[in-house]
């Protein structure tokens, strides 16, 4: 199965693109479990993420990915994966990430990462907090892909341009 991960800083169009691509290819996509988990936590307790949330988020993401992968045929899109959780954990917690997450996140279980650039407008919500650190965050995300040696392509431009470039990349993968 070809697994395509949408990867990059907050508010760079990953969810929108995952939904569009899944619809285009008539397949499934895996939402970002961290968002669901943290929105629920905020609604119920008025609290944001803590180190104690990292393992439950990771387990939830993997469970959701496995559940949805069973429904997909030859192509699956992921709004994010554990590598993104690793990047954010290390960023927010001064280099800390639980070994269980690092170990799982650095396995190359995906066909390609589509790294979303920061050239679309940032949209505020309760979980997003880095509108002025977008270049720094993009560099961190790209450096992580390079460090791991994972295959990736950068998607730039407006939503239509990103979609078209992603389709071009995925069509080539499907032809192999």
From TrEMBL:
Keywords: ATP-binding, Nucleotide-binding. It comes from the Bacteria. The keyword Nucleotide-binding applies. Pfam families: AAA_28 (PF13521). Residues 3-162 form the NadR/Ttd14 AAA domain. One of its GO terms (molecular function) is ATP binding. PANTHER family: NADR_TTD14 AAA DOMAIN-CONTAINING PROTEIN, TRIFUNCTIONAL NAD BIOSYNTHESIS/REGULATOR PROTEIN NADR. This is ATP-binding protein.
